[in-house]
């Protein structure tokens, strides 16, 4: 840092700090514009086949898994305690709810388990 | 039947072994699991044997796979998660190479069987539960009792959270298995159309000419399947990292 950085007489010799920082921010802006353009291009090109298919696969398995696990738990409870068919009915409904919860979570529409508990 | 799209998933016994009434035969599935492990081990041992400061082609592929998994794990579970790196890296390499080996014609796809993928995901969830209880004890159960919920609702919320937690290994394994199974069946069906059209009587010259269409589709689906092979290995790894994160930080 030279003490005379804001004085006009050094302008002819070399660029001042202010000019340099101005140029730096301009370059950073241009670079950012370029990268966001490249990223949006990449997103557009990859969203055609693979991404949509993967997303559909992910959400459907999340939902089916919830219902299946609920049904299996209910069936096991019925088998163990002889409460047929109430365990299956109740846990199938709970499994349905858990499936919807799974789908919403993996779609990012509600907070993950650990994130939500963090907020209190 | 050559055109049967399911026969490629058939388990055949190569070396029948039976111990105490249990069928422990060495099957074609076992053979390809051994082959997958051998390919992974050979690839990593051979590529890193040079240990060049400036990596060669193979070494940089090995380093790239390391960096890729390490970054995924660090992003999802933080620096603490790196203690699980051997597990996560082994899972990623195994699933990836098993998927890719399955793409070779006449090879068996290990990951197209639900029991294999389910065993892999149970390994993950087992690790999460054992580590979670060992490190946090009863506080690990906070995962099932979120804060800020009226106490009465715990009757409803806790079972739902438990089912949601238990459905993770199911969805993790079903996703990988279903993707591989569906992809290979589609491939086989479209490839079967080619031979059926060529062999079809009564179409004359039209049969072979039309068979270009399913052939083009087969080529396109092969490309897509390579993408899916990689994508599913990646998805399996990412979700593994997220579940391990739950074991490390259950309540904060």
UniProtKB/TrEMBL annotation, chain B:
PROSITE patterns: ATPASE_A. InterPro entries: ATP_synth_F0_asu, ATP_synth_F0_asu_AS, ATP_synth_F0_asu_bact/mt, F0_ATP_A_sf. GO terms for molecular function: proton-transporting ATP synthase activity, rotational mechanism. It is a multi-pass membrane protein. One of its GO terms (cellular component) is proton-transporting ATP synthase complex. Its main location: membrane. The chain crosses the membrane at residues 31-54, 84-108, 114-132, 152-170, 176-200, 212-235. PANTHER family: ATP SYNTHASE SUBUNIT A. Key component of the proton channel; it plays a direct role in the translocation of protons across the membrane. Belongs to the ATPase A chain family. NCBIfam families: ATP_synt_6_or_A (TIGR01131), PRK05815.2-4 (NF004482). This is ATP synthase subunit a. The gene is atpB.
């Amino acid at each position: 840092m030279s003490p005379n950085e804001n004085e006009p007489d050094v302008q002819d010799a070399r660029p001042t700090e202010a000019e340099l920082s101005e140029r730096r921010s301009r370059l950073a802006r241009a670079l950012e514009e370029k990268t966001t353009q490249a990223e949006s291009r990449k997103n557009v090109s990859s969203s055609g086949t693979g991404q949509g298919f993967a997303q559909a696969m992910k959400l459907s398995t999340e939902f089916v898994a919830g219902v299946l696990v609920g049904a299996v738990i209910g069936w096991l409870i019925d088998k163990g305690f002889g409460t047929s068919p109430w365990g299956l009915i109740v846990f199938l409904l709970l499994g349905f709810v858990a499936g919807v919860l799974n789908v919403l979570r993996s779609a990012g529409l509600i907070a993950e388990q650990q994130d939500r508990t963090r907020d209190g | 039947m050559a055109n049967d799209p399911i026969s490629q998933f058939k388990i055949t016994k190569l070396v029948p072994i039976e111990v105490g009434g249990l069928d422990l035969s060495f099957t074609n599935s076992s053979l390809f699991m051994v082959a997958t492990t051998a390919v992974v081990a050979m690839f990593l041992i051979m590529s890193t044997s040079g240990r060049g400061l400036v990596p060669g082609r193979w070494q940089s592929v090995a380093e790239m796979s390391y960096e890729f998994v390490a970054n995924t794990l660090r992003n999802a579970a933080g620096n603490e998660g790196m203690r699980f790196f051997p597990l996560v890296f082994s899972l990623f390499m195994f699933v990836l190479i098993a998927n890719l080996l399955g793409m070779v014609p006449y090879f068996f796809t290990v990951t197209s069987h639900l029991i294999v993928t389910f065993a892999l995901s149970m390994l993950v969830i087992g690790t999460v539960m054992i580590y979670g209880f060992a490190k946090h004890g009863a506080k690990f159960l906070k995962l099932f009792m979120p804060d800020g919920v009226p106490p009465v609702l715990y009757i409803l919320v806790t079972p739902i959270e438990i089912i949601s937690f238990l459905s993770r290994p199911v969805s993790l394994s079903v996703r990988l298995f279903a993707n591989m199974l569906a992809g290979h069946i589609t491939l086989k069906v479209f490839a079967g159309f080619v031979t059926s059209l060529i062999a079809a009587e009564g179409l004359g010259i039209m049969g072979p000419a039309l068979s270009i269409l399913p052939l083009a589709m087969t080529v396109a689906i092969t490309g897509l399947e390579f993408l899916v092979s990689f994508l599913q290995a990646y998805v399996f790894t990412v979700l593994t990292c997220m579940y391990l994160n739950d074991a490390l930080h259950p309540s904060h």
